[in-house]
Amino acid sequence: MIPTVEWKDGIVKMLDQTKLPLEVVYADCRDYQTVAQGIKELWVRGAPAIGVSAAMGLALGARQIDAPDFDSFWPKFEAICAEMAATRPTAVNLFWAIERIKHFVQANKDKSIDAIRELLVRESQRMIDEDIATNRRMGAYGAAFVSDGDNIITHCNAGSIATAGYGTAEGVMRAAVEQGKNIHVWVDETRPVLQGARLTAWELMEEKIPCTLVTDNMAGYLLYHDQVDLAIVGADRIAKNGDVANKIGTYPLAVLCKEHGIPFYVAAPFSTIDFATETGPDIPIEERNPREVTHVLGKTQIAPDNVQVLNPAFDVTPARYITAIITEKGAFRPQDLHHLADPKRDPERFRITE
Ligand code: MRU
Questions:
Q1: What's 330's DSSP letter?
Q2: What is the pTM of this model?
Q3: DSSP helix/strand/coil, 113
Q4: What ligand 1 atom has the least distance to the C-alpha of 286?
């Protein structure tokens, strides 16, 4: 497991995922603007990874602010938070992380600015440790749904590098393997940015988890021929009613699974659940550069000049297509999620194990 993002000697080192699988290189971010650019341009991507990267970016930003006291520091810091929040609209972990950091700064407003700067670095590092621990707990709950010999289909990349480490959907697979189960993973290539082909296939091969790459339009073939036992994907934002936004192409896979009676699981931390968003249609969907569709990885042109293009980066899978949402607090029917909006409510009552 290689770090997705880390703090080293005043620099945020970000694994540049646009270079994978051909090169494993880290981008050195010396200011918050470079971190924001890295999030926008997908050097780092995946909802939890975006969140922790933003937190590290804010720690850098605090160091760039020239302010003698908290009253002059705070508006400048808020402006940096707003810039960071404008990078990508769908993954709610970004906004969750920014809010957490803002509260943290407010809670420490009586300290010196230098002390706040130092504490922010430690808080963002704590968020990394917490995210890895969260993913491990999620993996333990999720592995219960995986049987020895299962063929799993996944979409996009919800692996170690989409998080601070270990992964969400891939964390479940990893945990199943750690329990001694033999699995095989069908990896959707995930057009247009190819997170499946470039990242998931690479990660699974590094982990020696058997996998086969397919193009997105082959999922129906696999299900028709009884080649899939279950689907596990990640999420970018989960609405209060259990609707799930994830990488474009997740919804058709979920519909196919339902048609074939195949369970469809979503693995995501609680920070991906947005209890303030009532239903899927309320989730903002990012539209990305048409060039992602007209060119393969921004290079080889595959469509006529000036063709009209639509490029939504995510779609919404309605709750009724989802068997369970696997979190660090247990697995839940999407329809039960709203009961957990109150963090004081004991999740035990709603947990499912099969
Ligand atoms: O555009 P991306 O690559 O950031 O989209 C990522 C996904 O859709 C992932 O499935 C999701 O963030 C879960 S990552 C654990």
A1: E
A2: 0.97
A3: helix
A4: 1
Candidates 210, 102, 221, 87; CA nearest to 151 is 210
Domain assignment of residue 167, given as a range: 146-352
Phi, psi of 126 (to 5 degrees): -65, -35
Residue 295's CATH number: 3.40.50.10470
Atom of ligand 1 nearest to the CA of 45: 4
C-alpha dihedral over 74, 41, 273, 325, to 10 degrees?
Answer: -160
Nearest to 280 by CA among 232, 237, 323: 237
Residue 125 CA: distances (Å) to CA of 7, 32, 132: 7, 16, 11
Counting Cβ atoms within 10 Å, is residue 168 exposed (0-12), middle (13-18) or buried (19+)? Answer: buried
Give per-residue pLDDT as tens, 244-256.
Answer: 999 999 999 999 9
CATH of the domain at 107: 1.20.120.420
Residues annotated as part of the active site: 236
125 CA distance to ligand 1 middle (Å): 21
